[in-house]
Amino acid sequence: MPEREEYLNSEKYEIRVRRYDAPGNIIAEISQLNRIRKSNPALQTHSGLRFFPVHNDQVILYGKPLPVRGDVILVAVSLDPFHVQEATIEVPLWEWQLPDNGTVIVHDLMRDTKFSWSGKLQRIRLDPAELPFAIWRVIARSGD
After folding, report:
1. Taking the chain, what is the end-to-end CA distance rounded to the nearest angstrom?
2. Domain map (residue ranges) of the chain
3. DSSP state, 35?
4. pLDDT in tens, 13-61
5. What's the angle, vertex CA 53, arms to CA 51 and CA 56, rounded to 5?
6. At 36, is the secondary structure helix, strand, or coil?
7. Whole-model pTM?
8. Beta strands 71-78 and 59-66: pairing type?
9. Diameter of the chain by CA atoms?
10. How far apart are CA 85 and CA 104, in angstroms?
11. d(CA 2, CA 8)
């Protein structure tokens, strides 16, 4: 339509052929995020969202409890799209009435790896070239 700036060189009104396997696509990450969201009902609503302390202004840490099992989903996100960010986070051990030196099992849901954290202070590294965020399921008991 003439004289309408909205239509002028607007991608939303153009048909473009895209290579979905081109460098920089995030199809795998979005697919994994959708699987994580679908398999964790707590992530399907905003209820119960809480923010936790992080010792770096360029990183946020938030979490949601999983009511059925008492586990917590923790998400750390870098706010800096250009630089690696390292931060000390405070794992909410108080959620399970654990002492500050307590141990929890951590399942990295994006990388599908398991490890443990001992102590409420943990050091993390978020690299925008790899993955500028992390999603963990924190389990306060032995097992899965």
Report:
1. 59
2. 15-139
3. H
4. 677 777 777 777 888 899 999 999 999 888 888 888 999 999 999 999 9
5. 115
6. helix
7. 0.82
8. antiparallel
9. 68
10. 24
11. 9
Tokens 């307590």 belong to which residue?
Answer: 102
Q: What gap in Å lies between CA 4 and CA 30, rounded to an integer?
A: 34
Closest residue by Cα to residue 71 from 38, 101, 43: 43
Token pair of 41 as six digits = 């009902």
Pairing of strands 103-108, 133-139: antiparallel
**Rounded distance between C-alpha atoms, residue 126 and residue 144, angstroms:** 25
> What sign does the CA torsion over 14, 15, 16, 20 have?
positive
Centroid of chain to Cα 129: 15
Question: Interior CA angle at 56 toward 50 and 58, to 5°?
Answer: 85
In the CATH scheme, what is the code of domain 15-139? 2.60.40.1180
Scanning the structure block, which residue is given the tokens 């960010």? 85
